[in-house]
């Protein structure tokens, strides 16, 4: 079964890290991948998202037509900064694997959610 591991946090914290601190965190992240990739638990290596300031939001307007605006305007402390797709037997196993992720500045929570299958 596949699960999304959503990496949540304050991207402004991440963006303000000194280069050597960012490099240290990335070494920890690479080490996490080295631990789990050989086990077959990572179905997709995932993606890192650019900061929220680069986003566009599409919503339905009053007439139902799409309205596109710059960035997310909601006052959010945490946003999704990246995601990894896990292949696990159940959500408990996915959560145990997520619990080994190296949380650092700008990464305050991990959300694990089953992927919907329409088969």
UniProtKB/TrEMBL annotation:
PANTHER family: BLL7171 PROTEIN, BLL7171 PROTEIN-RELATED. Residues 1-113 form the YCII-related domain. It comes from the Bacteria. Belongs to the YciI family. This is YCII-related domain-containing protein.
């Amino acid at each position: 079964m596949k699960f999304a591991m959503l990496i949540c946090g304050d991207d402004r914290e991440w963006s303000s890290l000194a280069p050597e601190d960012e490099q240290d965190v990335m070494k920890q992240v690479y080490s996490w991948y080295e631990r789990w990739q050989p086990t077959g638990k990572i179905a997709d290596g995932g993606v890192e998202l650019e900061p929220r300031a680069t986003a566009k939001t599409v919503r339905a307007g009053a007439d139902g037509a799409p309205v596109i605006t710059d960035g997310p305007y909601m006052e959010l402390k945490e946003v999704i900064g990246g995601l990894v797709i896990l292949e696990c037997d159940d959500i408990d196993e996915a959560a145990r694997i997520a619990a080994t992720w190296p949380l650092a500045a700008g990464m305050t929570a991990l959300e694990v959610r089953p992927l919907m299958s329409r088969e």
